[in-house]
Amino acid sequence: MAPLPTIKIISKRELNVFIDNLIQKSKSEVIGVKAKGERYVFAPLTDASELCLNYDVTILPPKKYFLPQYEPLMNYDLKKPFKVEKNLQDFSRILIGVHPYDIIALEQSDKVYLDPQKDDFYDQRRKNTIIIGADIQKVSKRSFAASMNTHITDSGFDLLLTNIGSHYAITIGSEKGKKLLEKYASTKIATEDDRKKIEKTRESIVSNYKKKVKVEKEQWSSTLVANYDHALWEEKSDRCLGCSSCTMVCPTCYCYDIKDDVTFSLKDGTRIRTWDGCLLHDFTKISSGEVFRDDIRDRYRHRFYRKGNYLPARYDFVACVGCGRCGIACLPDIADPCDVLNELSHLDYTDGTHKFFIEQKKKPTAVQGTIHLPRSATIQQVKRLTESEIYLQIELDDKKPLGHSPGQFVEISLFGIGEAPISISSAPGTSPLFELVVRKVGNVTSKLFTMKKGDKVGIRGPFGNGFTIKDFENKHLLFVLGGLGLPPMRSLINYILDKKNRQHFKDVTILYGCKQPCQVLFLDEIKKWQKMENVVCKLTVDQCEKNECWAGEVGLITTLFPEIKIDKSTIQDTMAIVIGPPIMYKFVIKCLQTLGVPDTNIFVSLERRMKCGVGKCGHCQINGVYVCREGPVFKYNDIKNLPEAFE
Amino acid sequence: MSKPRVAFFDFSSCEGCQLQIANLEEEILDLISLVDVVSFREVMKEHSDEYDIAFVEGSIMRPIDERRLRKIRKHAKIVVALGACATIGGINKIRNQWPVENVKKEVYGSEHLEDNDYFDVFPTKALNEVVPVDFYIHGCPINYDEFKHVVTSLALGKKPDIPTYPVCVECKKNENICLFELGKFCLGPITRAGCKAICPTNGSPCDGCRGILKKPNTDCVQDILDRYHLTYEEMKSRCVLYNYSKEECK
Amino acid sequence: MSKNMAINLEHVTRVEGHGNIVLNVKKGTIEKIQWQVSEAPRFFEAMLRGRPYTELRTIASRICGICSIGHSLASLKATEDALNVTITEQTALFRRLAINAENMQSHILHLGYLAVPDLFGVGSVFPLVESPHKETVLKIIQLHRLSNELSDLICGRTTHPIRLIVGGFSAFPTKQQLLHLKERLQEGISITAQVAETIKSVVDKFPTFSRETEYIGLTSPEEYALYDGTIASTDTGLFKDAKNYRSIMKEYLVPWSTAKYSKHTRKSYMVGALARFNLNSKMLHPKAQRVAKSFNLQAINYNPFMNNIAQLVEFMHNIEDSIRLIDTIVDKGIKEEKPVSVTIKQGRGVGIVEVPRGILVHDYSLDKHGKCTNANCIIPTNQNHANIQKDMEALVPQILHKPKQEIELNLEMLVRAYDPCISCSTHYLTVDFI
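^ inputs. structure came back:
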């Protein structure tokens, strides 16, 4: 049996002395729960009398101290020529009055932000902050924490205060907490009687909860899986303003966006992180203008699934702690998970064929440096390929190789403008040089289009799940590539067709389609491939003007399929790789299936709004899958049942 | 590369938005080292008709104003509407409720002013009802940080990032008590953000001066009015202040 | 002298709003002098009509971007007068701070950005930045920043103040914030004195011109009146019947101006900093008195160009006054007051304040539902237009011998000295035929 925690007793007067001591003597910033009008907030204390431990719920959860609303991550100065400085918090803090559900929420965000791809800003704040929790004395009328079992906790705090009537009990949760008490407070040891009082206080608060959720936490996932297509989502979201107030006030929501601030000099400024919300229309918008979760119904539903199914599958916790803040904040009152789950619980379970996530085979690997700070790199070569595409050869300034596998991407960073995810076009290896093919679409890519040799850029990554060469050895290969789908595969194809490696792979068929002849890339390399033995390479364009010189086919890429001659006997041994614009996948996969290629042999590379690259900012999600982590390269079989994958 | 040439113009307005540029204080000096201000009638005598970017404040009320605006559009590569009067008509549009003839009679009595260009007034128009506008800086007055962002973006050759989400996002980030909870009707949920929710943060409900977002979902309005004990009348009245238009006022 | 000259300065620069100066001279005879106001009428009365009393301040504020605090306060005073609402002592103190802040902000903007370039012979403040006068420009910016900090703190925002509402304030600053601002104001005193010194060194660039004029403004036995006071005239003394302001401020139309002209005992009168100085110079605080003395500015001064200097004097006074107000407020302690509650009733109210450019009147009539049925505003600049015209008529003969460019400059400087706010002045209600 685990040893009982050390518990001390303190009089109410001595508690005030303790807090005043912390304020005046501890050199830490002391934050506590204060009244703001009729509500409460966490705010700096100047005096112990300001602290209100009998509050119901704060407007914003303590997440604002670990993931601030507006957080300057780094200062950059392009005059130097590439100087970037992190803005790490170096002062210490004490938070007083954190309720158990908020403590549990912090432990949840720890699992996300302190995974192998650690966020050092969050880490620093966590390390520098002492949590003095408080058992709930007054229950918020929208809270259902008791039925989520988040109204009490035995971990995650340095100290925990419980009001046991005449005195406060202080449960010691860590060495830091113990030392704090010893230095600044005068306390007595708790008796057996005191311990009983604590238990009683915690038990009696349960009856104050008017709101109860009828679905056990452990059943949320299956309840949601069974009801993905239910009419409830449409009915409720019809009244949704898309204001994302629910995510702003939620202790377990932590998606973020990053923007660059620049001064009038245009050369220096700050990169700032701010809260983002998945209910907002442009949350999934990419530079080309495409929005991947356009319908309010999909966005409204996504939030509940993220909390009740996607995150539980990934991290083993239900990302809702029943605090009730969203119920208070939502003007048309449709955000409350308790209400939604209770409504769903009335329905008969149906067998859902949906799957919203992929079994995780590997844990994310730590990145070089930190996840936010770009490494400085220099453009070594620039070649204009077409009207809108440019080839860049880049070298990291520390001369280290990028260390990527084909199919991965980097986030290329232009301070003052932004970042863009670009697939890596060159073969993996020991060279410090790597290649990117960039299409001019948005702010960053348009700027890249004008850059010259010697210009500096920032590089984060490589990120994502790429191809494993082993999967292709001793197989026939069928590449179906549309538009910009070719550049990332070019190095893989060159590797396979290289004399040294050719014997490890069987027949190679390449189908390549573009919108117009002027957009065809790497035509001279393609011509070389066409001449090789056991290589079939066919090109097509969607349309061709009468006076344009074009020797290939004209028509959509699907029109090339009837010309493929692959034996029924070899089709089982063929791996198909499909990369192209979103619209292409549905049709091409049908063709492949008609051909007889098994679903398990098809690979796709999907695009979403990849921003952080490390599965934290939330923008690239396809249901429960992070494209920046489990993708962009996917086995079609793994994601074919994901409702959001191929719409 | 030479500095972009910038000019400021104003029509029917209170000139409060141009004042925000003066409120940049010391940063004005940085601004004028980034761009060449070739015309700014309010603060300088010099004027040139050769400019790349025109910042225009105010609404259009008369044919002579329309003609002046069209001239500006011809000279400038980029036209930026500055402030609510220019972006959406703003307060100036409230008088569009009444027929112009009644208004003129009311104000000028029986004076015969038909042949006087100065008095030839039609219903208020925002800039984009007369000429195409490239960028909008919203607000009444504008937020000079947003002005800074637009100027630096244009100088960097990138599209300015203006929020497409409602004021609620910024209001919640400021940890304000929701004004609905205090019995007031706030237009925040359907108004474009970018002002850091300055009015709710100071205890005053949002008036919608940055413009209503595209196609707000208004099916829930009755629910909200009921929940917070507000009247439909009050809501309608609030909408008229900045966003008066015959169709939108439902 | 058979001089022929045509001056047509369209849209005079460095003034707020659009106005033209036209001068035609044929064979030495002045055929035409006109101060034309071409600003588009904005019909504020039409905007206020039918709106609930809670929105009147929001709309009135937008009459002018620079005097938005002044219009807000006049609007609130008129509304409160119509509804019989009495504000608390705390509100009165904070409103005085607000009006001080606006006066400071407007005066330093006018002096620094609009008027001073003429004294240094440049077209705008921008060339001064490259010159040895850069320090002065930076000091002016510092004072402008200080004024904005004060009004941002009290009103929530300088332009179109948010916190000023019927019955009081929607939020008050904390004691710490006020004390911090007091420090900043104290620093501002020496910077103001330095700027005054610099201006003194070039003040003789203002023409020496004098024309006997009537001055009208608020006056009070207790303070240099800005927020509260009784209407007074240098010709006729106190006028206590505020609701009948029309018997003093008589407006009439002229065809070359979309703005009306005003007169009282003479053909025109002047309002603004110089008018206030001429009526109330004894009520100025000590440092402000010293600034006036250093410029030999004494009541009663008939040179409109000295309006600029009167503004400088008022700026210093406002700093001193704000420091005293903060001390009073902090001594009494800031209470968490909600605005005074309102019982809606029918009524007419008149609110009069001094804004930077002169005396401002808002006159509202409300129906029994609290909706506005009638609104009237007398704008300071309106009241000055006639005086500008008359000053021009008197000045031109005196300077006709000068080269054309200098005449143009002098006429522009004359208009600028009034610090006109032309877009405010083009909106009014019923015409009173005299």
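Chain A touches chain B through 47 residues (CB under 8 Å). DSSP finds 18 helices and 27 strands in chain A.
thumbs up if we can close this ticket
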